[in-house]
Amino acid sequence: MAVLIDRPNWPGPRGLLWSHLVSDHSFEELHEFARALDVPRRAFDRDHYDVPETVYDRALALGAEAVPSGELVRRLRAAGLRRPKRYLR
Fold first, then answer.
1. Cross-strand partners of 23
2. Burial 38-60 (b: 16+ CB within 10 A, else e)
3. Which pTM does this prediction carry?
4. 67, 46, 56, 45: which is closest to 18 by C-alpha?
5. Are the C-beta atoms of residues 36 and 30 closer than 8 Å to each other?
6. Is the pLDDT reported for residue 89 higher than 70?
7. Are 76 and 17 in contact (CB under 8 A)?
8. Strand ranges, E, within the chain
9. C-alpha closest to that of 55 among 15, 22, 11, 18
């Protein structure tokens, strides 16, 4: 059971690169970890938090496990926590 973060390599607002922060255990664990990082709840998107590169090192210092993006998604799915977008037809 861990909080996972991928490297900040997704372009986003304010010219920053962004990471995904997830839990492979529960959303409660994820929300608690995000609060400890002072990440606002509005950064939560279905099953993950989008966090800027400025948060990455602090997340690691607090115990997040750095993993490649593919592994992050695999572990999120294995935990039954993946909430994919539903596309409207």
1. 3
2. ebeeebbeebbbbbbeebbeebe
3. 0.89
4. 56
5. no
6. no
7. no
8. 3-5, 10-11, 17-23, 44-45, 48-52, 65-66
9. 18
Three-class SS state of 13: helix
Judged against a pLDDT cut of 90, whether residue 84 lies above it is answered with no
- The pair of three-digit structure tokens given for residue 9, joined into one six-digit string: 């390599």
- Does residue 88 surpass a pLDDT of 70? no
The 8-class DSSP code of residue 81 comes to -
Read off the tokens for 79.
């935990």
Geometric angle at alpha carbon 15, from 53 and 58, rounded to 5°? 15
Strands 3-5 and 65-66 turn out to be parallel
**Residues found in the chain:** 89
Nearest CA to 59 among 19, 14, 28? 19
Is 6 in contact with 68 (CB distance < 8 Å)? yes
What lies within 8 Å, CB to CB, of 62 at 6+ separation is 33, 36, 37
Residues 89 and 80: their CA atoms lie apart, in Å, by 25
